[in-house]
Amino acid sequence: MKTLTVALPGREYDILIQRGLLDAAGERVRAVCPRARRLFIVTDDNVAPLYLDWVEASLRGAGFETAAAVLPAGEETKCGSMLLELWERMMDFGLTRTDAVVALGGGVVGDLAGFAAATILRGVDFVQIPTTLLAQVDSSVGGKVAVDLEHGKNLAGAFWQPRLVLMDPDVLDTLPLPVFMAGMAEVLKYGCIRDGDFFDFLAARPSREALMADIEHILYTCCDIKRQVVMEDERDTGLRMILNFGHTVGHAFEKAGRYVEWSHGEAVAAGMCVAAKLGVALGVTPADVPAKIEGAAAALGLPTHISCGWNDIVEAVGLDKKSAGSQISLILLEKMGHAVAVKMEKDAVLRTLKAVYEG
Ligand code: GLY
């Protein structure tokens, strides 16, 4: 078993990584929720047929009473009306303040269940059991929970750390290949921003089989980087911004494709390629970095270029949460494995970005 501790004052929790860990869900949750009687599980209709009975059996075996909400899979589920429905169902179930919520699924389930846990009864414990690669390496760690609004993604949310993150790499075997590879975009990102050797390690494993052979090491390395970043900047006011490498332009790609044409991971892969070239054009990033990222992404079948209207990019730069007034903090690579935030005038960024993107 690999264990990482997210050591936040008063809200410390472990990330446990082990094949077959779903079997031990009950005892592991019992250890962190000793007083809980009831667990409300949130999952979706892709994950439920595969893992819900399994997890519920383990939780019941540890003496918990359980109820489950099986929601439609997909981003549309991460909305205010679904949150309201979950609150009501949690109350129907008789959830109390010493009970807990379990998120069994990908990022949508984790974000929504986490926000419901953060708000029901002014906050109850929650446990993340992420079942996608993207959720395992990113969204299940760090406590960002949210729902989407008409105005955009994740606009209503909170910081609400889980009590435990249970990661069973075996569940990745049932992911469709594009979903697995979309998660790999975020995995590559960790190499780009914090660990050049890890990037090389990944680049030398350009297939799902090769990556799965080392998946525990991969999950551990990504979560260790995320844990360190979150411990230093839980509230996303400084260092945590580096986790958004490739995301500004990536968000433009996602939105231009109406969130159906390109997954988040695919958009981030192409966004990282643009961000690397922008870094070169601004004299921050060494010239060989874009080709390295493009090569690693392409080898995994991820897009290295996505076409969208220039206005989509202008809008994404304007809406980016790293922007303040006329300036934006760009996340650029000073070298492979080291990201920095560089504050610049948006107009100057857009001029260079246009040349890079259309060039
Ligand atoms: N997914 C980016 C963050 O957790 O800050």
Describe this structure in a few short sentences.
Helix content is 47%, strand content 20%. The protein is of the alpha/beta class and 359 residues long.
Describe the structure.
- Helix content is 47%, strand content 20%.
- By secondary structure, the chain is α/β, with parallel strands linked by helices.
- It has two domains: 173 residues, Rossmann fold (3-Layer(aba) Sandwich), CATH 3.40.50; 173 residues, Dehydroquinate synthase-like, alpha domain, CATH 1.20.1090.10.
- The strands form three sheets. It has a seven-stranded mixed sheet with strand order 1-2-9-6-5-3-4, with helices on both faces.
- β11 and β12 form a beta hairpin.
- It is globular and about 60 Å long.
- The structure holds glycine.
- The site of glycine has 6 residues, from loops.
Order of helices and strands: EEHEHEHEHEHEEEHHHHHHHHEEEH
Question: Number of domains in the coordinates?
Answer: 2
Major β-sheet, in short? 7 strands, mixed
Instruction: Say how many strands there are.
Output: 12
Compute the separation of the termini in Å: 48 Å
Instruction: Compute the number of helices.
Output: 14
Percent of residues in β-strands = 15-25%
What's the CATH C level of the largest domain?
Alpha Beta
